[in-house]
Amino acid sequence: MTKLNTFEQAVETYEPVLGLETHIELDTNTKMFCGCATAFGAEPNTQVCPVCLALPGALPVANRAAVEATIKIGLALNCRIAEWTRFARKNYFYPDMPKNFQTSQYEEPLCEDGHVEVLVEGKTYRIEIERVHLEEDTGKTLHVGGATGRIHGATESLVDYNRAGIPLVEIVTRPVPGTGALAPEVARAYTAELRDIVRSLGVSDVRMEQGSLRCDVNLSLNRPGEPWGTRTETKNVNSLRSVERAVRYEVRRQSALLDAGERILQETRHFHEATGETSPGRSKEEATDYRYFPEPDLAVMEPSREWVEELRAGLPELPRKRRERLQAAWSLGDKEMQSVVNADAVGLIEATVEAGAGAAGAVKWWLGELSRRANEAGEELTGLAISPEQVAQLQGMVDDGRLNDKLARQVIDGVLAGEGDPADVAAKRGLEVVSDTGALEAAVDEAISANPAVADKIRGGTHAAAGVLIGAVMKATKGQADAGTVRQIILDKLK
Amino acid sequence: MSADRTIDQTAAHIAEAIREGRTTAVSVTRAFLDRIDAVDGTIRAFLHVDHEGALATAREVDEAIARGEELGPLAGVPIAVKDVVVTKGLPTTAASKILEGWIPPYDATIVERIKAARMPILGKTNMDEFAMGSSTEYSAFGATRNPWDTGRIPGGSGGGSAAAVAAKMAPLAIGTDTGGSIRQPGAVTGTFGGKPTYGSNSRYGLIAFSSSLDTPGPVARNALDAAMLHEVISGHDPRDSTSIDAPVPQVAAAARTGGSGDLAGVKLGVVKEFAEGAEAAEPGVVAAYEAAVEQLVKLGAEITEVSCPSFTYALPTYYLIAPSEASSNLARYDGVRYGLRAGDDGRHSLEEVMSLTREAGFGPEVKRRIILGTYALSAGYVDAFYGKAQLVRTLIKQDFEKAFEQVDALISPTTPFTAFAFGERTGDPYQMYLADLYTIPTNLYGGPAVSVPVGLSEGMPVGLQVMGPVMGDDITYRVAAAYETTQDTLLADTAPEIEKG
C-alpha cells in the first residue's frame, strides 16, 4: 500500500472537492408508510405490521407529518418546495429491506435548490443544497459468526425490522469546491449546522450516537486549474468528529495515490471509527442498477402554496440568527463565539445563563474546565454528566465566595462522579471556603512564626513575598480558604 | 334444467329466500359445499375449501335473522375468493409455491367488507401464479378445468373463480383484473365478470401483480348479482392511497334499470381498430358478438363506430408496464420473512438463500415477466421501454376520453377466441397474451368494463365486453343487464352436466 501523505502535503498540491449526503431520521410518532411506533430501543420486531414487514398485499400510505417536517427542513435550507412531487422505488435486494426496494424519491424530490452558510475560521462558506427528499429507513441486520461482522462469511443473520419504514430525510449538497486545507472543518461545520437547524425545527432530536443522523462523505482531489477528480463515497460516517477525520483521511489517501500516478477508483468506502481510516466497499462501477421508477402504490403529492407559506411563517429562529443574538447578549467577540460553536456549547451556555449564571462564568466553565474533562474522557461536551443548572449553581457558589476555583474543580469531580448537585457535593466532601476569621488568623500567625525571614521582607514592603505565607496557610487549611482574604490578613498583621 | 336446486339460483334470489325465511344460510352454504365436494375433484377450481368457516358464518347469519336483525343485501350468500386476495387465517398462496403454507395474519379490505356483509367464504380459488396468465395453466398447483369442456382451459388468471361459478360451486366469487383476468375467464366459462374502475375498489390485501392496473371485482352468473357484490366490496379505503374518495356508482340500481330491457338513447361505440387487427377474433366469436349487437339495437341502442388508434399498441404497452411493476412487487418474496425458504442448510449465505428461494419458488411465466420487467426498467433501457410505454398509456387514455365524448360505452368481444385446449398456447407466450387483446386497453385507461355471456361458438361460451368511462361503472351494468333480458335462460344454466371425478 502506498504510504499516506501528511494532510498538509496533500493540500499543498491538491484541491479537495467535497460533497455531503446526510440522512436524518425524523421524530414522527409513526412510521413513514404505516401506523407503527418509532421509539428507539424497543425489543426487536415489536414495532412492525403487514406494511413495514412487506407482507403480501400490504400497501403504503404516506405520513403527512413526515412530509410537513421535510418541507420545513427544505424551507430552513432556503429550498424551493415542489408543487408536484412523488415517490419512486429504488430496487435492490437486501435482507434488511422488507420489500427489497426502498420507497424514496428520484426525479421529483420535495425540495430543491437551497443553500446554507457556515463560518469556519472567520470565513463564510456557502454550501449549495441540491435536493432534500423523503424516504424510508431499512431494518437492521446483525451478521453473526463471520470474521468481519458483514454478510459474507456469517453463519447466521438476524434482522430487526423496528427501524424499517422510519421516515428518513436525505439532504444532498452540490459539490463544494474551494475549501482547501479547511475541507475537513467545513464538512464538520456543515454537518453541525444541519444538525442544529433540524433540531431547531423540532422535527428530529438528531442523536448521532443512535444513528439518527448519518453522513456519506464524497471527496475528490484535483490539481489547481484542472478538472475535478474521481470521487469516492465514504458511507455511514456517524459523528461530527468522524466526518472531519474521514475527509482528512481521504485527502491523504487519494493524494498519495495521485502522486504515485495511480487512478482513483469511483467506489463506496467504509469508515472505521477505531482507526479513522477508510476501506473499499463495493465498486460503483459494478454497482447495482437501482431501476428507479415512480411508486405506483402512492398518490402524487401537490403541497399547496398556502400550506407551504403557513409552514414558512411558522419556522422558529434558526441557529445562525440565534447565535448572532446570543453573541451580542453574552458580549463575546467573534473568535470566542466561534470557539463556543466549535465546542458545541451554544445550547449548554444558553441554558446555564438561563439557570442564573453570568455569561462570562458560563462560557469560562464550559469552554475551560468542562471541555478539558470531555476531551480527557473522549466524550462530546453534551455527553458530560453535569447539567447546565448544576454549572449555574457552581458559578453561584463561586460568586458568593463559598467556593474558590480550586474547590470548584473538586466539586465538579463529585458532580461527574454522580454525588449530586454542587451544593450537596461541597457539603458531603467538606469543600466550602473557610470563612471563620478566627481560624484563619491562627493559621496566619502560625505561618508567620514558621517563616520569620519572609515576614520581615513583607514588613519591609516586599508584598509579593506574601505568596509564600498564603501557600502555607492554604496548605494548612487544605485549600479551603479564600486566597484574597488570607492575603489581606497577612498584610494587615505585617504592616 | 331443474331450477329448484339451491345451487341453480342467482345470488339475489338466494339472499331473498334467506331473508324471508324460505331457506337458511346454513342449508344454502351446505348445498354449495356439497356441490364442491361432488364436482371439484373434476373441475379443481379451489385451492382451499373452508367448510367450518363458511358454515360458522352461515350459522351467525341464521341466528341474526332469528333475532330480527337487519342484514345486508347479500347476507348468507356464500362466496369464493381468488387466492390472490389475503384472508386472515386461511391459506393464501397466489397459486405460487413461494407462498405455500403461508397463513395471512390480516384480511384484505374487500374481505373485511365481505365479512361485514355476512357472506360465508367457501374457500380460495385457483389462478395463474401471481395472476400472470390466461388459462390457469401457470398455477403451481395444477390447472383448473372448464366446466363446459374439461379438456379446455377456464381462462385466467381467475379461472378458478369463473369455473367455480360456472360449475355452480359458488353463486358469487371475487376475481382480480390486471389485463382481463376477470373478464376473459368470464367469457370462456359463460359467467359474468366485472372489472370496476381502478381505484374504486381497495387493493389493500390484494397480492400485487401490477399496482397501477390491479382491480378486484365480482364474478357472478348475471349482471345484477355481480352489481350487488360490486357494491359490497367497493368504496374508498384510507389504507390504499390510490383509492378514489368519491361515492360509488349505483351499479345495482343500474342493473335493475337495464333489466327493463330498454336502451333507447344509449349510444354504444364499436372500436374500429379491434375489427381490423391481424389478430381479429375467430369467426364463431365474431358471429356470436354480432348477434348480440343486433339484440342491443333492438333494445334501442345506437351503434357508432369510433376510432381508438392507440389501442393497436395496448398489448406491447401492457407487457412493458405490468412486468416492470411486477418485477419490483415480487421482489419481497425472498424467503427471509415468510413462505418458502430454499437452501437454508448452513452451507449457503443469506444472499444465496434468497436467490435459491426465488429460483425454486417461482414458476416459468412469473420468471419470464420478472426478467422482462427488470430489463424494461434497467439503466439505458428504461426510457425506451418503461418510459415509452407510459407515454403510450397516456395516448390510450386519451383515445378512451375522446370516445366517451361521442358514446356512452364501448362494446367488443371480450376475448378473440373461446376456451382453448390445455397446452395449446403455453409454447408461445404471445399466443397466450392475445387472449387479453380486447381487455387490456381498459386496464391501461383505468375505466370499468364487464363481460356478459352472449352465446356459444362451437359449443363454447362467448362474452360481450361493455367498457365505460372512469367511474361510469353503472352504464356497463345497465347495458349488460339489458342484454340479458333478450335471453330466455342464463347461459350458465345451459352448461353440460359435469362428470363427477
General description of the model:
Chain A is of the alpha+beta class and 495 residues long. Chain A has three domains: 7-311, no CATH class; 317-429, no CATH class; 437-493, Arc Repressor Mutant, subunit A. Helix content of chain A is 39%, strand content 19%. Chain A contains 16 helices and 14 strands. Chain A has helices at residues 7-13, 64-76, 183-201, 240-259, 305-313, 319-329, 334-342, 346-354, 359-377, 388-399, 405-416, 422-429, 437-450, 452-459, 466-476, 483-493, and strands at residues 15-25, 80-81, 88-91, 101-104, 111-120, 123-136, 140-144, 156-160, 167-173, 213-222, 232-237, 267-272, 277-283, 293-294. In chain A, strand 5 and strand 6 (123-136) form a beta hairpin. With 501 residues, chain B is α/β, with parallel strands linked by helices. Chain B has a single domain (6-311, 394-486), classed as Alpha-Beta Complex (Amidase signature (AS) enzymes), CATH 3.90.1300.10. Chain B has helices at 11-19, 25-43, 51-66, 109-116, 159-166, 183-189, 223-233, 251-258, 272-276, 283-298, 314-329, 350-361, 364-377, 383-406, 429-433, 440-445, 473-484, and strands at 46-49, 79-82, 121-125, 172-177, 192-195, 215-220, 267-271, 302-306, 409-413, 449-457, 460-467. In chain B, strand 10 (449-457) and strand 11 (460-467) form a beta hairpin. In chain B, helix 2 packs antiparallel against helix 3. At the A-B interface, loops of A face helix 11 and helix 12 of B.
Segments of chain B where pLDDT lies below 50 for 5+ residues?
Answer: none
Count of helix runs of chain B:
17
How many helices of chain A? The count is: 16
| Anisotropy-based shape of chain B | globular
Kindly report the greatest chain-chain contact and the residue count on each side: A-B, 34 and 46 residues
The overall strand count of chain B is 11
